[in-house]
Amino acid sequence: MTREESTQKRLRRSAGRRKRLGWAASYLMVLPATLFLLAFTIYPMFNLVHLSLFKGNAMNPYKQFVGLDNYKNIFFVNHEFLPALKNTAYYTLAVVVLLISFAVIFAVWMFKDRRINDLAQTVFFTPHLIAAVSCAFIWSWLYNSNNYGLFNSVLGFFHIAPVRWLDTTETAMNSVIIMNVWKGIGYYALIILSALKAVPPEIYEAAKLDSAPRLTVFFKITLPMLSPQLFMLLVTITTGSFRVFDSIRIMTGGGPGASTTVLTMFIYDYAFQRNNALGIGAAAGVVLMVILILLTLLDFKGLEKKVHYQ
Amino acid sequence: MAQIEFRQVCKSFGNAKVIEDCNLVLQDGKFTVLVGASGCGKTTLLRMVAGIGPATSGQVLMDGRDITDLEPGKRDGAMVFQNYAIYPTMTVRENIEFGLRNKKVPKTERDRLIKEVAESVGLMTYLDRKPGTLSGGQRQRIALARAMVKKPKVFLMDEPLSNLDAKLRVAMRVELIELHEKLKTTFVYVTHDQVEAMSMADIIVLMDKGKILQEGTPEDIYNEPDTVFIAQFIGSPAMNVIPLAEGYQLGYRPEKVTLDKVPGIATYRRRGEILTREMLGSETLYKVQLKDCAVMVKSLHDSFKMGDQVYIQVDERNLYYFDAEGRRIRSDKGSLFEKCATLAGGNNDA
Amino acid sequence: MRNAQIKRRLRNYLPSLPGDILKIVVVLLFLFPFYWMMITAFKNHNEAIVTPPTLWPKVFTFGNFIKISKMGIGLTHYAINSVAITASIIIIQLAVMIPAAYAFARRDFPLKGLLFGFVLVAFMVPGQITYITTYLTMAKLKLMNTLWPQIIPFGANAFGIFMLRQSFKQIPDEIVESAKLDNATEIQVMAKIMVPMSKSSMITIAMFSFISHWNEYFWPLVMTNSEKVRPLTLAIEKIKDAEYGIQWNSIMAANCILVVPVLIIFLFASKKIIEAFAYRGLK
Q: How large is the ipTM?
């Protein structure tokens, strides 16, 4: 072996060692994050499926293997799961429709660069920052069924009989929905507004030169330009609504009756509040997880489209 | 001061070969300019000297010592980047000081060096400012100061003037030449701009597609280009190249052409008509339509108008011949000229 | 001349006047719930439930705040828990996030894609999916009577890692190379160049973290069994159940204490916060 060759070989070996040392350092850097993610996200996802195959409680979650019985139970035996799913779907549909349409209206309304619009944007956005718990308590107080409840006082001023907003099965869910629309509008309007401002103004100027009427401009130019963001909002609001818990628990506790019980409340109730029902709660959790995964995949599909669109 | 040597250096990114078997010596104390179109591999060579883009194979030597795998911080090199790469969160002083601190230079020594350098590039009053508040020219000076303060054996510059406006660029060119005169260290400068290369270099290394085409002084490269590619790369506007018979090509520079109302006596003379006229100030640029082609002429006379009938002529010593592969033919020019003239069916249509 | 100008401006403005008035009315309506919360907090019980309600307290009292601070284990205790939990989460998240984001942005190693995939998954998976298992884990570790179950599960902030990686990636290569030529070690590059250059991203991430954990209700509800370790968000419920008949003035006073810190931060940095939310919303 010539000297040249042996140096080359030594160089190669030391390069290999340096590479492995570099890998070790990289792993050290991502190790804490990875451990947290594995322990508190990845493992719980799989374990939820595992738990759903057992009958047990918090003390002894794997007491008895029951296969798919828990799923059979929630879909065919239990009287609370399907209504909870239906309530969740109703809540989601209403919130999606109201939030998106109001967000677009508010965004267009606040489009011009004026000080009053900055102020309006700030104010509309504020409820988004406040805890759902706080908003729920404030609105419970506004909705108070007695004469002194603020909304009922206003109705009283117009000689209308008081309404028991949160206390009847007909009005409870809608009252909760109104609160959550109030809380979310500013945030979603903000996103639409940023998207609107990203549209090159030349397009509108060109439309003006073509003397297009304002409504035509809105439906033929503005809305199509917004379609990627609208789609994204659709998915974000839907996934968010399927997870709703705080506001409903505070405002109605799922009642009256089970008229406002949603999926997350069903899971919470069965997982820890009842005897030996942890598996049922877990099975319902798996259903929620599947719904969320499907929605997220839909989001990715939409993102692909967005790339084509631009 | 240092001499840099590349020995059989190759570099590839994945399957793309950027540098192929490069052998090159950058002489000690000289201002060497690597010039070529973008993607020719000039920056890759520079980064190898700096140590931030190692060679795939081959060796890089500094003063005979193998530095191929040496860490960048241990190389006695300093680099000025195209976008200056100034640390935006540090003040001007901290920017200049950073390298010294890492080398554990004592505080008093650091202060002395910073003062010295800041004075010489005119940054004294800006030392405690953040770079974000300074102009492009001043940021350029920070980058220079940061390199100078390390007293490097080799000064590497990657298109450092390309982000400046035209006027400032010309001024900085002069300053860099002066800086080299003062420091007398090895300068390696990368640019795609042939004017920059011509005006600053002691030695020009002209590259294309990962290969070195020619190296020499600016005069060498301008007067004695090896190929038609080099001849057309250097000089503005580019050399006129006229196809002759059998793939041979004839070239002459626009600034070597004499323009007249009456036919001259030079061996190469043609009649033509002025197509366009660009007044550049001290000179005027004409496009002249000859019988079978159009050529550019740079003249001190601005009196010709569009549509004028004119005669052009070029001295024989300013004529270049190239073969079918574009290589320069240096020997026996006379007979070739005669031959081509005959083949072309008579040339001097005076 | 001057008069003519003013006239012209007025004429241009007049058509938007009705719209502006409507806008101001809507703005006031949006703010009204917060106003109602605050004035209720300063009313005594009798005035809080009077018909018709008063729009400004006739008797302005701090009594509700004093009363709730002494109720049960005391509101201060909950507030301290809230601060301790939120602060610990932010500190741990930053310590975990910086090296991870750096490695994901700037280094190459086997399985990087998979590990980064975990980050993206965690970005989408909500607490409602993970809490059952996490509860069982925490119970097994006998941590249920401590603050840890409300802190450790949030050690890795997926959104933060994602955003900080983005920010590290945007730093030009030349700056890092320049630092290497300046003889800086990788740790110095990280600490002295990358982190300072990403300061605004990290402030944004910390702010998002503060808002979401300060407001967190679901997680402490399912992760705690005793009042001792509960945060402010759960204290209000406790106050609601504590007395005979619901005392809305006390509830609103407690609510104020939860809401006001966030409102103050928003008041001082509304522009920055709104920008950050818009950025995150559009990804």
A: 0.91
